[in-house]
Structure formats: C-alpha cells, structure tokens
Amino acid sequence: MNFPIFLHRTLAVLLLVCPAMLSVAGDATGSRPVSPSIGMLWSTAPGEGSKIDKWSRYGLIVTSPDELGFEWEHKKFENQAEKFVPETIASGRKFLADLHAKAPGSLVLCELYFFEADEGAYPPDSPWWFHDAKGEKVQFWKGCHNMNLGNPDYIEHVVRRIGAVVAATEGKVGIFLDCLGFDPESKGGWMALLTKVRERCGDVPILVNTGWDSDDLDWIAPMVNGFMYEDSIKHTVDKNAEEFYTRIHRQHQLCREPRLGINEVFSKSGDVGTAERELCRTLVYTNLSFLSSTSTYGHKHQWRPEWNAPLGPAVTPPAAPGPGRLARRDFVGGIVLWLPEDATTAENVKLDVPHHQVGREESLHKITVPPGTGVLLLNDTAR
After folding, report:
1. Of 12, 138, 145, 179, which residue has the fewest beta carbons closer than 10 angstroms?
2. Helix (H, G, I), strand (E, B), or coil: what is residue 183?
3. Which CATH architecture has domain 322-383?
4. For the chain, what is the mean pLDDT?
5. Which of 15, 112, 25 is nearest to 313 (CA)?
6. What is the C-alpha to C-alpha distance for residues 16 and 6, in angstroms, rounded to an integer?
7. Residue 272 or residue 6, greater confidence
8. How far apart are CA 138 and CA 144, in angstroms?
9. What is the 3 state secondary structure string of 261-290?
C-alpha cells in the first residue's frame, strides 16, 4: 500500500525494453543473483548519504514515477494524466542511470493505481469510481475510494498510464499494482488489464500486492512476475507458517520470468526475533526479497546488520519445509539454517569449513540449532 543488497550486487543486470523485452536470467536455481535481497517499499531506512546512496542498498525498489523525477502532465484531476511533462523525462532517465550505475542489480518498480484512487484523482461524477448497490462510493481508506474494475474505458486508461511509464523509462523499470481483488468482477478486471498490458508492453516486470492473502493466486500467477506478501504470514487461515512458505514458493514458480517477489513482515521496533526468524525462512525456503517493517503506514524500518551479509548467489535450490525437519540452503558466501518449532530436539550441524555468525568473531566448525531458530552463517573467507 502506498503510505507512505547488498555486497556482490554486480553479478547481474536486468535489461528491460518494451515492447520487445529482454531479460538476463538468474543462476540455475532461478533465484535473484544475490542474497539477501532487501525490498524498499516507498520508504528507505534512516541513514546518511544521497537518495541514490540510500536506495542502492536495496534489491527491489517500489516507488512512484515522481520520486524518480518524472512528472505527469498537469490535469485538473491528477490521475487523468497519461503522459509525462517532456522536460522531466531526461531528468528521470538520468536518475535511473545513476542508480543502476551504483546498484546494477537493483530492480525499480513504479506504482500505478488500479484498484483504488485518492479523492480528487478523477472527477467526482466519473463512471470510473466503484459504487455499491446503494449507489455510494466505497471507501478503501480515508481519502481513498475503490475504482470500477469492470469499466473497459477505465482499464484502457490505466493501460495507457502503464505504457507511458514503460516508454518514458525506456523499459528500465517494472510496474507495481496494489490490492489484488478476489471477487469475480475484480478478477475479470485484473485479467483484462494484464492481458492488454502484455499485448502492448510485452514482458515488463509486474509485481502485485496480495495484501494479507496467500491463497487463490494460481489464476493470476502466469500473468505477473511475482507477488508482494504484505504481512501475509500472520494472516494465514491455518496459522501454519511452514505451509505458508511452501505455498509462496510454489506460487513463485508459477509466475513469469524474470521472477521477483517480496515477503514483508511487520514487527514492532526492537523486535529482533521476528526480523531474524523470517529473514532466515525467506532465504532458506524461497527466492523472494525480504523486508521487516513496522506497519503498512509507510513501511518504515531500520537497516539491520544481517541485511549486509555477503551471502552472494544461492548454490542450492530452496529447501522444502517438512515437519520438524532441519532446512539448509547453501550460498556462495555462507549457509542459512532453519529448524521448525515442532522439532523435538535441537540439531547439531557440522561445518566443513569454518564459519561465523553475523557480528560475531568466533570461528565455528559446528553449531547447535534449537527448535524455532534460524541461523545465518558466513564463510570465514568473507570477513
């Protein structure tokens, strides 16, 4: 929602051109080139340096076109614009070029509204607003209302806005769409939109926010490149976190290439346990990017030391979750371990070469992993 990695990032560059899109695949496991990949959702972690300095730490960046320097043509109702002010296109392209020069592996996604729009975005009497059975607009959040996803003219308008972003950025960014809908009319609108976008913009990367949902995504997965799971792990119907990770990895494999995605978890400031646990599970079980933030209101977060860990590319595929079973995934620069909470005993893991935990000096030849614990180990050569 719009409220408001690493080291070794230079291993790959995505070249994206619309309508004939080109892509550079990741390694043989299908993962993004480096790990951990941290996502930026509109807000950066506090820190010194320029905007590009701050952004360059992230592997996946969701932002608005204006934050890149592109300015929509001025309209009385702002979202009616379908073109950018010509003079701003050069400055926007330069910002992207400077960012990619510093962080060539980072992928930028521009958010465009589809499901919802702010008050004043369109004329009050526009047929593009969604109205309930009583003829009333439906509020999504304060100052924002749902749109009529069944209106073909509205769908065409959003397609033109997406095309404008792809053209202005020379295909060097992807698209982020918020708030996937699951009722029959919403599903029809989403499929109509994505079909038209694919016809006109080819393989432009598209990331869709599923909100709290992590079920019923197979119908749309082949049309998009990945999903944003917004604290979805805490809102599963079965309350089974291990099954959640099985599910989102399977869904990831159904998406188009180049595949991308982000697993975001919310935790209170200072809740180190949640941030570390879910980072380990994300790394060991999936190829998704990760973010631990305080809430949907700004997606604010502090940069954590383990996010700088130079794991590099994965050399083994994601582990398959199993009841009480130790999960291990090897990377060029280290190892990630996770032992589910339902394990009956701790696991003793022997290490072929010395490793150390992030922020610790002690070299380890073995480590004990208690149930419900994740461990990120770095090869001593990475010191």
Report:
1. 138
2. coil
3. Sandwich (2.60)
4. 90
5. 25
6. 21
7. 272
8. 9
9. CEEEEECCCCCHHHHHHHHHHHHHHCCCEE
φ/ψ of 19, rounded to 5, equals -90, -20
Topology of domain 9-303 in CATH is TIM Barrel (3.20.20)
**Domain span(s) for CATH 2.60.40 in the chain:** 322-383
Q: How far, in Å, CA of 303 to CA of 53, rounded? A: 13
pLDDT in tens, 332-345: 999 999 999 999 99
Residue-level pLDDT at 34? 66
β-strand pairing of 289-293 with 327-331: unpaired
Q: Worst-scoring range by mean pLDDT, 25-39, 53-67, 212-226?
A: 25-39
Per-residue pLDDT at 18 exceeds 90? no
* Per-residue model confidence as pLDDT tens digits over 72-83: 999 999 999 999
- Residue written as tokens 């975005």? 121
Residue 276: which of 336, 215, 230 has the closest Cα?
336
Using CB atoms within 10 Å of the CB of residue 153, give its burial: 0 to 12 exposed, 13 to 18 middle, 19+ buried.
Answer: exposed
With a CB cutoff of 8 Å and minimum separation 6, the contacts of 271 are none
